[in-house]
């Protein structure tokens, strides 16, 4: 007959995923939080191993290049790592300030544009349409307050 295409398999898996989310939302939320926890835990372990490798490499390099004892090598490596860390934190701080300004400017523009749209929509309505809109809004809020709260 006909072979099953990948599109049918993907659609079937999507339908199955929707059914699972509807049937067991608490389990899906638990799986999702466990997955995010696993990712953060692996990221922490990887970053720790990367730091230890960097520290060992710097220890070896400083000890052989500068011909120092172990204590002096550890002091030099500490200050090198501290300088790298402080430079990174400063760069992150500068990036965060730029990002904050960009996001706040975007939010303000979004607010002003949508406020202008709402004003234009409201002023384009006739008196009867304004009454209908207000009545529908009051009815929706009343249904929410009386039946859903």
Which key features would you list for this structure?
149 residues, mainly alpha, 92% helix
Distance between the termini: 54 Å
Can you tell me the residue ranges where pLDDT is under 50 for at least 5 consecutive residues? Answer: none
For the largest beta-sheet, the strand count, sense and barrel status come to:
none
Q: Which H/E pattern describes the elements?
A: HHHH
In a nutshell, what does this entry contain?
The protein is built from four helices and no strands. It has 149 residues and is mainly alpha-helical.
SSE blueprint:
Blueprint: H1 6-23, H2 25-66, H3 70-124, H4 127-148
Task: Provide an overview of this structure.
- The chain is an all-alpha fold.
- Helices cover 92% and strands 0% of the residues.
- The chain has four helices and no strands.
- The chain has helices at residues 6-23, 25-66, 70-124, 127-148.
- Helix 2 runs antiparallel to helix 3 (70-124).
- The two termini are 54 Å apart.
- The mean pLDDT is 92.
């Amino acid at each position: 007959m006909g072979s099953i295409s990948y599109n049918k398999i993907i659609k079937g898996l999507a339908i199955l995923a929707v059914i699972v989310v509807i049937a067991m939302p608490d389990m899906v939320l638990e799986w999702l939080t466990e997955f995010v926890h696993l990712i953060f835990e692996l990221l922490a372990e990887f970053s720790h191993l990367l730091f230890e490798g960097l520290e060992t490499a710097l220890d070896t390099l400083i000890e052989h290049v500068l011909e120092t004892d172990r204590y002096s090598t550890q002091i030099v490596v500490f200050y090198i790592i501290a300088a790298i860390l402080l430079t990174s934190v400063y760069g992150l701080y500068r990036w965060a300030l730029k990002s904050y300004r960009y996001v706040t400017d975007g939010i303000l523009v979004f607010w002003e544009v949508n406020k202008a749209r709402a004003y234009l929509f409201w002023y384009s309505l006739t008196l009867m349409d304004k009454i209908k809109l207000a009545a529908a809004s009051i009815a929706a809020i009343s249904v929410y307050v009386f039946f859903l709260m």
